[in-house]
Automatic annotation (TrEMBL):
Function: CRISPR (clustered regularly interspaced short palindromic repeat) is an adaptive immune system that provides protection against mobile genetic elements (viruses, transposable elements and conjugative plasmids). CRISPR clusters contain sequences complementary to antecedent mobile elements and target invading nucleic acids. CRISPR clusters are transcribed and processed into CRISPR RNA (crRNA).
MF (Gene Ontology): exonuclease activity; iron-sulfur cluster binding; metal ion binding
Cofactor comment: Mg(2+) or Mn(2+) required for ssDNA cleavage activity.
Co-factor(s): [4Fe-4S] cluster; iron-sulfur cluster; Mg(2+); Mn(2+)
Protein family according to the UniProt entry: Belongs to the CRISPR-associated exonuclease Cas4 family.
Protein name, per record: CRISPR-associated exonuclease Cas4
Every DUF83 domain range: 14-199
Pfam families reported for this sequence: Cas_Cas4
Organism per entry: Methanolobus tindarius DSM 2278
Length: 200
């Protein structure tokens, strides 16, 4: 697996990558200008945290045999110095074919499409699992709690891991060098953005 070539000691979170995918300027405002986004006030963030807390309290021993899972670990905190990233994986599933897979719970409905933020969250978790467990990770799962806990599988390609590393590299450039990035091309995202009043 290609490691991120960088002398930087910066380690970012998976959440940072999700913010970057929403708009690269989030990273600039948070890290370079030190302006918090107060995500704790956002409804979906609060509900998502509630879902995670409930998951921690219930079905702790439940193993998803339909996914050929033989064991799992829950709420796993993992760090990779090689990839400059850290995060918590809701569940690390260990599968019958001697591979592993991340499973992420989302307080969301499935609407015939997996968002790229969800996809890259799983890809980054896969990088972390590979390195920390020294095991192959070829796919990941999302559980949509507002669609009767529907599970969607995503198979990873080599190009997914390359793009994930490219994204991390871009974020570290912004954080370490104060590079002012282009804003998102999707202007609809600006409507609800907490930084809309200061973003030029």
């Amino acid at each position: 697996m290609e490691e991120l070539e960088s002398e930087s000691s910066t380690i970012i979170t998976i959440s940072d990558v999700l913010e970057y995918l929403f708009c690269p300027r989030f990273i600039y405002f948070m890290y370079c200008l030190d302006i918090p986004q107060h995500e704790e006030n956002r409804f979906k963030v609060i509900k998502g945290r509630d879902v995670h807390k409930k998951r921690q309290m219930t079905n702790r021993e439940y193993v998803r045999k339909k996914l050929n899972c033989i064991s799992k670990e829950s709420e796993v905190y993992v760090v990779s110095k090689a990839h400059h990233i850290k995060g918590i994986v809701d569940e690390v599933l260990f599968l019958e074919d001697n591979t592993a897979a991340p499973l992420e719970y989302k307080f969301a409905e499935y609407k015939d499409k997996v968002f790229s933020t969800y996809k890259y969250q799983l890809v980054l978790q896969a990088l972390l699992i590979k390195e920390n467990y020294n095991i192959e990770v070829q796919k990941g799962y999302i559980c949509y709690t507002r669609s009767n806990s529907m599970i969607k599988e995503l198979a990873f390609k080599l190009s997914d891991f390359k793009k994930a590393n490219d994204i991390i590299k871009d974020i570290i450039q912004i954080v370490d060098k104060g590079k002012y990035p282009q804003a998102t091309k999707s202007k609809n995202k600006c409507i609800d953005c907490c930084y809309r009043n200061i973003c030029a």
